[in-house]
## 1
Amino acid sequence: MVVITLQRNKCIGCNYCVELAPNQFQMSKKDGKSVLLHSKDKKGFHTLKSKDYEILEPSISASKVCPVKIIRVKDI
């Protein structure tokens, strides 16, 4: 299972995650921050759990280029 976590309140809106993983991330028109699609929010941490391993590589790429390091990706 792939687990992606986004600490959204620390997002600076650089858009790199959307460019590398557009199926997982989108920029909010309200505040210009990243949104982890289909995720659940718990105290500012937005988490997506998926059995779709096709999202793993793009999500790892997005986590590596994030300048504020707020994206975590796990394969459990």
## 2
Amino acid sequence: MVIYPPKRPDKAINTLINALQPLGDRIQVIARKRIGWGTREKPYIYLVVEGEVSVLRLSDGLLLGSTCEPHVLGFTEMFWPIRSNQIRAETESTLIRVDAKQAVSEIERLNLWRAMAELSIYHTTYMVYRDLQIVNQRTPPVVYQYLQEMDQLPEEQKHRVNILSYIQERTGLSRSSILNVVSWLKKHKYIDYHRGGYQLRINNLPD
């Protein structure tokens, strides 16, 4: 069974970006660079206005989720002082860094709590969706689910995303267990991909 991700609240995201953008500093981030949420005394909100970024768990580097522009990150980390994750730029990206206290003041002034709540609910629901994909699941269904997710990526992204790395970063499964499933699928013509595990194409996955 394919599990579908929650719908992104684009209107809420755009509303928040339009309101908070004048308060922040524009920063350019090179691909693969990691960024923290600020300090305990001065947390930041990040507006993703160009590029693709991911959120990684600090304890083991597990990739919790990826997103592209436009997006807003940092509200959960602002209210929860334990720094358990960080941002990583997947491509060269442009972010706007906003002091969290200023962001909250502006949200209160403009009464944008609903937009903030919609975005926070989306992030929470996304974590539930992610857990449904991998918790207490056998390896083949987990791999199938992420292959389906990869198949929905834009063609440009498929050229630079490696199947093994994509699945391993998001699941913690060993490369050998992923490779066993992927190789079996290709042998039986359920999927195809170019040399090195790029440009995935799904023909039909088994039940």
## 3
Amino acid sequence: MRLTPGPARDVDLDRVDLFDLDLYGAGDPHPIWDVMRDKAPLHHQVLPDGREFWSVTRYEDVRRVLSDHREFTSERGTVPTHLGTDDAAAGVLMTSTDPPRHTEVRRPLNARLTARAVRSWEDSIRATVRHFLEPALEGEVFDLAEQALLLPAMVTGPLLGIPAKDWAELVQLTAMVTAPSDPHFLVGNEDATLAISHHELLTYVRDWATARRAGGGEDDSLLHHLMSVRPGGAPLSEEEIALDGYSILLGANVTTPHTVSGTVQALMERPEQFAKAQADPSLIPDLVEEGLRWTSAACNFMRYAVDAVDIAGGTVPAGGAVVAWIGSANRDATQFPDPHTFDITRAGAKRHGAFGFGPHFCIGAPLARMTLRIFFEELLGQCASIEPAGEPQHLRSYFIAGLTHLPVTVQKRPTP
């Protein structure tokens, strides 16, 4: 979807279809979200097949839905692809489990991913980013969005314990899960794409765990650490290890590439912002936060109302599906003045919801922030300029906002 919206337009809220994939693959949902925040902060939509959901688009309402598991449960499914069919893994898969069980599984993993814990990876990540940028610095057309899909695997593969020979396959499978209708990842039809990717990813984690057990010994990888987690004093079942490993792989691979390419696109469209960051590298952490807000790669998450609940001037009935639109919340003018302006000096950009809110706040946020900071330090440090070299193509997904193609050419900075 377009990250720089077109002009405001009249929107018939009775005809809005937020499940229209063309709206994201080739369209512009931001003017629609602008109107919804203003006129229909709680919006009800019924799909042609009878499925229904309620949308919240204002920052505070999105924050409330994602933060309060007592009002809005994760244990029926958390992404729109599950709408109408309860997630079979709910209550087992960490991302589809509420506290206290969610917290018991998450806490020991979180200890391995704090800002202090991941700091030791900085030199390794910097070397990885430099290697990633080498082809771009040769001056030929470089498809940043396509190549960036592999970047998180290059960074997190060693941390997770995944061998390099498997990275490309796992990146393809995780993309199939999150964008099963995009022609780059579609296999047959959407249902087949989801079924194949779910099966292959779960099988991979099961086989990985079986091989680790058979080999004996310990290693320092996050997936191996998952096998030792004991919520409530009992070890995770094999199913839980497979499902939570699957969830970790998704989280590691899915959003960072689109934050990278979307932020670079914003900088190319605004060369004065590129020049400002290049002239003052101390602004790069702020650039990262504005890029996270601007791209909102995880465009939404879904919850279900436990009981009837009043929110955003209306009522969601008990059991109603609620989609919290992070991409809209991060453009709420009450929180981010002039929200459709990309500004790396924006005050308060770090309040964005790109990593979610509440108990399911992204466990990998410190690692993602550090990876993005290093990426832009290297990009701005090595590149005199970066220019578009073709038309961008947007991901066909209402869950992940991103790019599949962003051809660029880079002019390398002269060596001092």
## 4
Amino acid sequence: MPRSGTSQRQYHHGDLRHAILTAALEAIAAEGPAALSLRDLARRAGVSHAAPAHHFKDRTGLLTSIATEGFELLADALAEAADLRDAGVRYVRFAREHPAHFQVMFAPDLLRRNDLELAAAKLLASQRLRAAVATVPAEGRGADTRLAGIAAWSLAHGYATLLLGDNLTDPIGDEDPEDVFRSLTTMLFRSGNAP
């Protein structure tokens, strides 16, 4: 029986897992993934201290679930991209809208690397990025599509990381970050085949 009387009533019929994930994302956004503890999450979600372990086994399992969800969300965002530049903008938008996911997704030391769901989600996001690279004519991306994909990913990921770290506050001021990214890709890739 719960101590506060809120946990079972509030998080029944499958909502418990979602409540724990939501509390984890809030904690990561506020304090970073290093500060995350299952006991604190249970308190934040208003559930027993054993509930997070029941659903995720341990902190690594929880962070792996967050990363998996993040790659699935990113893959969904990239699926709608019209071309490589649009995929880059969608990547930046994803990072801005899901900063806690973004932090965890690219921290492999925090994750269960052999998790099959994580591997499948990463693969899907990677395939969507490669599909966007394939929209660029060969003369615009060169013969090595793998390197073109790495270049596009590096540009979007680097920009998003700088943006989330408040490193671009002064340089871009009040400009829309997505518009700045579009301008950046045009400036760097005059051929119009930019990410």
